[in-house]
């Protein structure tokens, strides 16, 4: 089975397993149940498909899938907007996906760098599409407790560096969201071998990653609250916001915002005075 079709079938099974007949608004079909959620036949009826056609979808034996069928499945499975988009990516024709081009350079977007330079009073970093750091300011490194030089993998820091678990109080919230975001990225880029290798490395080395990956949750980058415990500044709380340039969708500026007059906002100028260093940025990066 092609890789993308295998992922499609697995995702469909995981979503119907979490939805019971009563939650879907139907009477359970008679007979002994061997699945925690909907049966294939029940989902097929909900989506207006024949059981045989749906079985071919889940088994990866259906080459072309119409938008109408995908929309019907999304409604039947009660997928949210991100899950619906993920379903469409998994079902996209193989020809739609462009193979990775390892010699293409990813450079920090000049406009996002200029914006970063105006935000030196809060922690900021610029991420590439594999969550590799393209640029960051000195305050970001001070708050997270690592240099995080350009070229560093923010994902590897999150899961392989013990400092991440020590400093990020709500580490599990951020870590599970990171895994769900990586699953979304792989669906967008199924032939990005470096991204796939990174996920396999983390699944092998970290039981939390393996467990969250098997949940099949997906999400896009979204605002979250990050709570930190800084060894000198004490408890800190940030609202994490993402900024994208319309012409550079593969780069995201991540800004650690604070509530006005909060204890975090009051302590940041002190931390900034310790780190009077210029923005560090990555000149080139392979895709």
Give an account of the 3D structure.
The structure is a single chain. The chain is 48% helix and 14% strand. By secondary structure, the chain is of the alpha+beta class. It has 14 helices and six strands. The chain has a six-stranded antiparallel β-sheet with strand order 3-4-5-1-2-6. It is elongated. Strand 1 (124-127) and strand 2 form a beta hairpin. The longest helix has 18 residues, at 171-188. The protein has two domains: 3-96, 434 Repressor (Amino-terminal Domain); 110-281, Beta-Lactamase, CATH 3.30.450. It starts with a helix and ends in a 6-residue tail after the last strand. Mean pLDDT is 88; it is low at 99-103.
* N- to C-terminal distance: 27 Å
Which consecutive residue ranges, at least 5 long each, have pLDDT under 50?
99-103
Strand percentage, roughly? 5-15%
Specify the overall morphology: elongated
CATH class of the largest domain: Alpha Beta
- Residue-averaged pLDDT, rounded? 88
User: Tally the helices: what do you get?
Assistant: 14
């Amino acid at each position: 089975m092609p890789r993308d079709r295998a992922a499609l079938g697995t995702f469909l099974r995981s979503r119907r397993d979490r939805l019971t007949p009563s939650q879907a608004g139907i009477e359970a079909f008679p007979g002994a149940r061997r699945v925690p959620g909907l049966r294939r036949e029940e989902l097929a009826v909900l989506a207006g498909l024949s059981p045989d056609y749906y079985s071919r979808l889940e088994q990866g034996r259906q080459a072309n899938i119409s938008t109408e069928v995908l929309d019907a499945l999304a409604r039947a499975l009660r997928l949210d907007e991100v899950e619906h988009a993920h379903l469409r990516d998994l079902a996209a024709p193989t020809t739609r996906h462009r193979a990775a081009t390892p010699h293409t350079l990813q450079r920090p977007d000049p406009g996002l760098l200029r914006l970063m330079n105006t935000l030196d009073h809060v922690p900021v970093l610029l991420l590439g599409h594999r969550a590799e750091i393209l640029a960051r300011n000195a305050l970001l490194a001070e708050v997270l407790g690592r240099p995080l030089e350009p070229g560093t993998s923010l994902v590897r820091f999150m899961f392989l560096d013990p400092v991440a678990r020590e400093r990020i109080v709500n580490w599990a919230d951020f870590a599970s969201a990171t895994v769900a975001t990586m699953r979304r990225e792989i669906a967008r880029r199924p032939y990005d071998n470096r991204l796939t290798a990174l996920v396999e490395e983390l699944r092998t080395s970290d039981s939390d990653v393996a467990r969250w990956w098997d949940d099949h949750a997906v999400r896009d980058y979204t605002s979250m609250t990050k709570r930190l415990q800084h060894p000198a500044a004490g408890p800190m709380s940030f609202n994490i916001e993402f900024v994208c340039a319309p012409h550079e969708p593969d780069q995201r500026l991540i800004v650690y915002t604070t509530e006005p007059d909060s204890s975090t906002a009051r302590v940041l100028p002190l931390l900034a005075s310790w780190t009077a260093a210029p923005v560090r940025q990555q000149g080139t990066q392979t895709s």
